[in-house]
TrEMBL record:
BP-aspect Gene Ontology terms: DNA-templated transcription initiation
SUPFAM superfamilies cross-referenced by the UniProt entry: Sigma2 domain of RNA polymerase sigma factors
A molecular function GO annotation: DNA-binding transcription factor activity
Protein name in UniProt: RNA polymerase sigma-70 region 2 domain-containing protein
Residue ranges the record marks as coiled coil: none
RNA polymerase sigma-70 region domain segment(s): 25-72
Source organism: Paenibacillus albilobatus
Length: 101
């Protein structure tokens, strides 16, 4: 699926078309998973974050502005950063505060 087609399906999903959302999911899941896996190493955390990204996307459709398409990328970034920030020092990830020092 090319970007133009993906944007058309996103617009349909925004209007509540669940089958369009499923197509968006199928077209993007592998790339989203790969990106999260680059940043997070625990398989369960990766799956949780990817699921959270798509849940947030679905819930945010009523506020979706087609003129600001990059907003969905921010959802993914916030999900990953939230998960990393939850980890305790000494765990798999240092907290964001520890990393910033």
């Amino acid at each position: 699926m090319n970007d133009k087609e993906l944007l058309l399906w996103l617009d349909k999903a925004r209007l509540g078309d669940e089958s369009a959302f499923e197509l968006v999911y199928q077209a993007t899941h592998q790339d989203v998973y790969r990106t999260v896996a680059f940043l997070v190493y625990n398989k369960q955390d990766i799956e949780d974050i990817v699921n959270e990204i798509y849940m947030r996307m679905w819930r945010s459709f009523p506020k979706y502005d087609p003129n600001r398409r990059s907003a969905f990328g921010c959802t993914g970034s916030r999900s990953v950063l939230s998960k990393i920030g939850e980890e305790r020092p000494g765990g798999e990830f240092a907290s964001l505060n520890e990393t910033a020092r």
